């Protein structure tokens, strides 16, 4: 089964570089569920450590717009600005994870 | 800001144990986007390595039902059975990841 993988929305190259420190600070309010280092502390809340910034950004915008629905994330994402979203996404992507070989 | 974290749906304790080998075999058709070891190979496709089984299971069921919309995942999840979903979710959770301290 050949699956054509086109996930990424058009990547605009003009967005200013994200601020990792601001992202880290903002992520403190996410830590209760997603963990201080992005490893989930709550069943049903995904790990975010090392997750692609483009994916996290996309999902936060979907939660903010309602395109993706979740009671908690809909409330949390609503007030986020584009800059805060991009800083959060960059912060989580910056957390390096490695797969432990079996 | 206190965020009440209630993500997990009721965890039924009677479901049969997932089959990791079957999950690994099924995940081969996901590897082009999500990577053979669950580390994404495609912008916009999330890493799944070490992701919580309850979260992966929930999201695959949402894609299958249409509660969560994505052109690719809607097509891919549609034919999946509950058993295949639980095997896939268990497989990805079984991939151990560690956060690389900074």
From TrEMBL, chains A, B:
Protein name: Cytochrome c
Pfam assignment, any one: Cytochrom_C
Database matches in InterPro entries: Cyt_c-like_dom, Cyt_c-like_dom_sf, Cytochrome_c_Oxidase_Subunit
Keywords: Electron transport, Heme, Iron, Metal-binding, Transport
Record organism: Actimicrobium antarcticum
SUPFAM superfamilies associated with the record: Cytochrome c
Domain Cytochrome c: 18-96
């Amino acid at each position: 089964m050949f699956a054509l993988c086109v996930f990424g929305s058009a990547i605009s190259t003009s967005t200013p570089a994200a601020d990792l420190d601001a992202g880290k600070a903002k992520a403190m309010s996410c830590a209760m569920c997603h963990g201080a280092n992005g490893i989930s502390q709550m069943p049903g809340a995904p790990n975010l450590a090392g997750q692609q910034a483009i994916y996290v950004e996309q999902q936060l915008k979907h939660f903010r717009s309602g395109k993706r629905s979740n009671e908690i994330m809909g409330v949390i994402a609503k007030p986020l600005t584009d800059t805060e979203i991009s800083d959060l996404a960059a912060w989580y992507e910056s957390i390096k994870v490695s797969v432990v070989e079996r």
